[in-house]
UniProtKB/TrEMBL annotation:
This is Ferric uptake regulation protein. The gene is fur. It comes from Thioalkalivibrio sulfidiphilus (strain HL-EbGR7). InterPro entries: FUR, WH-like_DNA-bd_sf, WH_DNA-bd_sf. Its main location: cytoplasm. Gene3D superfamilies: Winged helix-like DNA-binding domain superfamily/Winged helix DNA-binding domain (1.10.10.10). It comes from the Bacteria.
Length: 139
């Protein structure tokens, strides 16, 4: 998955995104490997690379990348949003104790029945987030 700068630029262009310096820096952080990063984590990693990017730019760019299908937005709760660079079908395990998210293969989760749907709609996808806490940990 690691991509060089030229590959990142081509990926952005392929999704209809103009590859500005800041967008390329953000994309390079996201596409280092399959990972789940919050906007604040992306900001910290980009700025640690000696690239000066504002928080607003990171949030706007992540929103654009999600809209264009470059990353998957995983909303654990209203205060916790992760950006997932793994676009293959999978579900998530959220560790409440440390705030980390990990992938679960689709084959390990069985969703065999869905509720009756309103007329005129179709299922676009099913996203499962399983929240776990260490046994005996305070809530």
């Amino acid at each position: 998955m690691p991509e060089n700068r030229d590959q990142v630029i081509e990926r952005l262009r392929g999704h209809g995104i103009t590859p500005t310096q800041q967008r390329v820096e953000i994309a390079q952080v996201l596409f280092e490997r399959h990972q789940h990063l919050s906007a604040d984590q992306v900001l910290a990693r980009v700025n640690a690379r000696d690239a000066s990017v504002s928080k607003a730019t990171v949030y706007n760019t992540l929103g654009l990348f999600a809209e264009k299908g470059l990353v998957r937005e995983v909303i654990v709760d209203p205060a916790r949003v992760f950006y997932d660079s793994n676009l293959d079908p999978h579900h998530h395990l959220f560790h409440v104790d440390n705030g980390t998210l990990e992938d679960i293969p689709v084959s390990q989760v069985n969703v065999d029945r869905l509720p009756d749907l309103p007329a005129g709609v179709a299922v676009e996808g099913v996203d499962v987030i399983i929240r776990v806490r260490r046994s005996g940990a305070a809530q």
